[in-house]
Amino acid sequence: GYSRKVLQYFLHPKNVGEIENPSVTAKAGSPACGDMIKLYLKIEDEKIVDAKFRSYGCAANIATASVLTEMIIGKSIDDAKKIKFKDIVAELGGLPQIKHHCAVLAAEGLKQALAKWDVIQGRREIDERFVKLILAAVIDPLTGESVLH
Amino acid sequence: MVIYLDNANTTKPDPEVIKVMIEYLEEKYGTPGGEFGHIFDEDAREAVEEAREKIAKEINASPEEIVFVSDETEADNLAIKGVAWARGKGKVLASKIERKAILNTVNRLKEWGFKTYEVGVDRKGFINIEELQSSLDGAVLFATHLGNFEIGTIQNIRAISEVVHENGALLYLDANHAFGKIKIDVQKLNVDLMSISSHLIHGPKGVAALYIRKGVKLKPILDGDLRERGIRPGMINVPSIVGFGKAVELINYEDAKRMAKLRDKLIDLLLSIPDTKLNGPKGDMRLPNNVNVSFNYVEGESVLLHCDMRGLVFSTGSACYSQDLLPSHVIRGIGGSFEDAHGSVRLSLSKWTTEEEIVTAYEILKDVVEKLRKISIYGGRK
Amino acid sequence: MVIYLDNANTTKPDPEVIKVMIEYLEEKYGTPGGEFGHIFDEDAREAVEEAREKIAKEINASPEEIVFVSDETEADNLAIKGVAWARGKGKVLASKIERKAILNTVNRLKEWGFKTYEVGVDRKGFINIEELQSSLDGAVLFATHLGNFEIGTIQNIRAISEVVHENGALLYLDANHAFGKIKIDVQKLNVDLMSISSHLIHGPKGVAALYIRKGVKLKPILDGDLRERGIRPGMINVPSIVGFGKAVELINYEDAKRMAKLRDKLIDLLLSIPDTKLNGPKGDMRLPNNVNVSFNYVEGESVLLHCDMRGLVFSTGSACYSQDLLPSHVIRGIGGSFEDAHGSVRLSLSKWTTEEEIVTAYEILKDVVEKLRKISIYGGRK
Ligand SMILES: Cc1ncc(COP(=O)(O)O)c(C=O)c1O
Ligand SMILES: Cc1ncc(COP(=O)(O)O)c(C=O)c1O
Ligand code: FES
Ligand code: FES
User: Fold this and answer.
1) Which residue among A137, B118, C197, C254 has its CA within the 20 to 30 Å range from the CA of C321?
2) How many domains, chain A?
3) C-beta separation of C356 from C349 below 8 A
4) Ligand 2 pocket test: which of C223, C225, C227 has the largest number of ligand atoms within 8 Å of its C-beta?
5) Is the CB of residue B339 below 6 angstroms from any atom belonging to ligand 2?
6) Which ligand 2 atom is the nearest neighbour of the CA of B346?
7) Which positions fall inside the Aminotransferase class V domain (chains B, C) (predicted)?
8) Shortest-distance ligand to the CA of residue C341
9) Given C249, C282, C304, which residue is the final one in a domain?
10) What CATH number is given to the structural domain containing C297?
11) What is the model's pLDDT at position B35?
């Protein structure tokens, strides 16, 4: 089952909602179960000053997205880029093995948002690799299939 | 106080059931061996045979047609593999919306060279009898259910058995979820094999019964001694069997009538929540204790956990909740979208469910769904 | 007052076992579903995992290596068919004196093209390791027991496992009758699969455990959901599993020492009856609770029934007593005559057996045997 901390974040998620005029947004869908999160970031001087999320998914999905927003608020872009799914799992005090992909989903959302931000800043090309990164893991919950197909 | 609406998963044993079980745990702990067990074992043997008689009588079978097994999964496997192996080759069919134990067992038969086919169902979960009819060429067995475990659809078994028998195949009926709620007569339904289980009718876990019509041949799955006439060798689980017998004795079809009324009330209440739809049929063709709805824009596991914290217990067809991360094949089978499955919840009543519980369940669900829709990407709109 | 000396058939559940079972029958009646059952099911899931840990620890295995099944017959079938089916083809061996569930399962494998072989034993029931060694060509599995269910012989498993593994085969050990009486360490014994059951150690019926060493592949017999990691899908029999865990917790090897002393006393007393011989070895190589003797000139069922009337309960290897009217294949397997099997009785002790009961049992048996010999054609002489 879930740890107390996961349940806490699930029952009382922090940073739910949308940011008006976000610097960047990203959507990530899990190829495992078909769930989705959407991340909204406000970035100032290469620092994340605000983060919010919306979720269509399980308790682990909601908890990981929520704890992720807490982890990144106040971090520099470079530091945020270093966050791996395992860090999110650790921050929650562990997740059942079968729910690790929910943390992957959250990490993926962050990765995409930051890649988009690099493009906006002119630091990154919109090449095939970038487009695949954005689209690959995005799952349409209505069909349960990747929007790439 | 927990509101337990997961009675299609398992039920609370009746106090009278527990009482007889304790007797066979504490004092009459023997186990039927051969025909001539010592007198100590006779108590156990007689109790087992008495339970067998009660169960047989309840479904209008004879005691020799009842074999005790450990659970419904074993019954499914024994019926399906047993008949297929006895026949040697041919086609084995099931509907698309059977329990996993049936679907996976049928599928496994390919390893032994059998052909298989999954018959489709309509939007309410009723088996497409024309499709069945046209797929029965070379069939040895059709495995299906009486009442669907997830959406409650009650199949037209008389029509199905006619078609199946016309084509020379046998019919195996998983009656686990209907048993005790709708009166079953194996002669009238004209089934060849049928399974019913104890833990879904306020009996103990650890036992189910397989009805095998006299003359139907099947090969056992388990080899061993000659218990259960060699069809199911092994230890006879006396306390569970005796408890099963008591649970059957306690069946009262008035309970089912009451449940059906509460079911309809709960369905009406839940459908008053916006963007909610019913899965399965309404009225008499639905199991009296089954409610299944899909809430748009939210995911079932989240709904379930929130409710759980507030003392309301049920199941969901969400992919997130399943061990293989796949959404309910039943909701998908009736043509529901991925989202319909993901946001589906099954609430199953028992004879002890009260009107007050039904109303409270609705209130909790309404509140939780509203809360989660606020978090949802879809925000309550598409 | 009954003197129950049929503890190798089944045992009386310990009152503490019944107590925990009642808790899981009355209140915590949920059943573990997926990983994330609602909290109601969590109680059941945790209790099952706790039982699994206790059992694993008792035999020095890890919890992931333990799969719960319904009884020892199922364990035998799952281990033997599971490994054979996973390997696809080859030879499967057992000793001549296994339980029927093992012998018949091995024999059944012929249907799937496997070769089979039954290894002989010596006069005391010890497996002929040279014969085993020379029969292992192309073998995938040797299925045998730790302590013999009928004559109590404890096999030299370390020597057996060495020979079996040298030849690239796996070793399945039926430890049902030894478990709880002699300390078992799966690492030291070096077995690949092993079964132990609840109802033989004062636990409930309805559950047994199969140890499957990490890395050993087997195909399930039953198909269904993903419970027990798909190796044994189906309903989790929570009260029985919890009771099993408690029974394991209650194991005390001091009981075995006491039983061994009473066993030896009973053997000595019975051998003082003329024309009586011991089946199986004496001393440390015999299960601490097993006594098996053959009374010449009399038939076991008659002995058993007479004793029964006088409150003494045990088993016999007589053909008249068996459901297939065949004399004990174990007594025949160790080279005993038809008469030896026919007149054999097995008395099996429990931790509750008292010295007084042992003496009374002897007195009753002596009297009954004398009486029957007067009726006998052989009249006490050949
Ligand atoms: C002679 C005999 N048959 C059968 C059994 C029960 O074993 P199973 O349930 O595996 O058949 C026992 C129990 O130990 C036994 O002694
Ligand atoms: C979804 C689901 N899975 C599994 C089961 C248990 O059935 P079985 O023990 O045959 O797998 C049930 C019980 O009705 C069920 O509803
Ligand atoms: S988002 Fe579906 S399992 Fe977590
Ligand atoms: S003499 Fe009657 S069964 Fe043996």
Assistant:
1) C197
2) 1
3) no
4) C225
5) no
6) 16
7) 3-358
8) 4
9) C249
10) 3.90.1150.10
11) 46
Q: Are B76 and B174 in contact (CB under 8 A)?
A: yes
Domains contained in chain C, number: 2
Q: Which residues pair with B193 in a beta bridge?
A: B172, B212
C157: domain CATH number is: 3.40.640.10
CA distance B304 to chain C (A): 7
DSSP-H helix ranges across C94-229: 100-108, 129-135, 157-166, 186-189
B101 in a domain, yes or no?
yes
User: What residues does B3 pair with on adjacent strands?
Assistant: B312
Q: Is residue B3 part of a domain?
A: no
Cβ of C37 closer than 6 Å to ligand 2, yes or no, is no
C197 or C380, which is more confident: C197
Contact indicator for B122, B113 with CB cutoff of 8 Å: no
Chain C residue with minimum CA distance to B198: C235
Ligand 2 binding pocket includes B8 (Cβ within 6 Å): yes
Catalytic residue of the set C320, C338, C354, C355 = C320
The answer to whether residues B238 and B300 belong to one domain is no
Any domain includes A148: no
Q: Do A57 and B320 touch (CB under 8 A)?
A: yes
For testing contact with chain A, the best of C36, C39, C50 (most A CBs within 10 A)? C36
Complete edge-to-edge strand list for the sheet that includes strand B193-197: B66-69, B208-212, B193-197, B170-174, B139-145, B91-95, B115-119
> If you measure from the C-alpha of residue C72 to the centroid of ligand 1, how many angstroms do you get, rounded to a whole number?
8
Give chain B's residues under pLDDT 70: 34-38, 379-382
Instruction: Quick: pLDDT tens for C260-315.
Output: 999 999 999 999 999 999 999 999 999 999 999 999 999 998 999 999 999 999 99
Residues B349 and B244 in one domain: no
Residue C228 sits in the same domain as residue C260:
no
Using 50, 70 and 90 to split pLDDT, how confident is the model at A149? very low
- Domain finish residue from B204, B231, B249: B249
Hey, which chains touch C, using 3+ CB pairs under 8 Å?
Answer: A, B
Residue of A nearest to C34 (CA): A1
Asked whether residue C261 falls in the same domain as residue C175, the answer is no
Q: Give the model confidence (pLDDT) of A63-74 as tens digits.
A: 999 999 999 999
**CATH assignment at residue A9:** 3.90.1010.10
CB pair distance less than 8 Å for C45 and A99: no
Q: Nearest ligand to the C-alpha of residue B177?
A: 2
3-state helix, strand, coil in chain B (%, to 5): 45, 15, 40
pLDDT of C326 > 60? The answer is: yes
pLDDT, tens digit (0-9, with 9 covering 90-100), for C179-196:
999 999 999 999 999 999
Given CA atoms C128, C130, C135, C137 in this order, what sign does their dihedral have? positive
Tell me whether residue A146 is in a domain: no
| Confidence grade of residue A143 (pLDDT, cut at 50, 70, 90) | low
ipTM: 0.90
Contact A54 B339 (CB under 8 A): no
Distances (CA, A) of B13 to B207, C44, C203, C238, C370: 13, 14, 20, 12, 50
Query: Same structural domain for residues B244 and B114?
Result: yes
**Whether C4 contacts C313, CB under 8 Å:** yes
CA angle B127, B131, B137 (to 5 degrees): 120
The best mutation among A6, A10, A33 to test binding of ligand 3, ranked by most ligand atoms within 8 Å of the C-beta, falls on A33
Owning domain of residue B208: 15-249
Phi-psi region of B63 (alpha: psi -120 to 50; beta: other; left: phi over 0): alpha
Q: Are residues B154 and B271 located together in one domain of the fold?
A: no
Mean pLDDT for chain C overall: 95
Residues B264 and B312 occupy one common structural domain: yes
- Give the pLDDT confidence of C102-146 residue by residue, as tens digits: 999 999 999 999 999 999 999 999 999 999 999 999 999 999 999
Co-location of B182 and B287 in the same domain: no
**Per mean pLDDT, which range of A108-112, C126-130, C251-255 is the poorest?**
A108-112
pLDDT tens digits, B273-322: 999 999 999 999 999 999 999 999 999 999 999 999 999 999 998 888 87
Q: B2 lies in a domain?
A: no
Least trusted range by pLDDT, from A115-119, C39-43, C307-311? C39-43
Amino acid at A145: E
